[in-house]
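**User:** Hello, beginner here. Are you able to go through the protein record under this note? It all follows right here:
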Amino acid sequence: MVVTNIMPCIKVTKENNMSGMDMYIDLGSKIRVTDDEGKILEGRVFSLELAKDEEEDDMLYILLDNKKQFSIGISYIVDIEKL
């Protein structure tokens, strides 16, 4: 057997009182993120930086449509969807 492809992705788990679901978002995918203040951003997944310590927040980096980079801590994301 030979490895032909390795694809990094981000696993997102969404839950409500009744059920839950997992979705996988590939790097470079177009997404819409809603933060804890209700601000909505659209862009492409650029990278995910894992925190070094448990007390720190993992950071999601998004490349916005205007080519600027935006970062947000995972704990501040209320909703994320793949477009």
In short: The radius of gyration is 14 Å. Residues 5 and 66 are 31 Å apart (CA to CA). The mean pLDDT is 94. The longest strand covers residues 40-49.
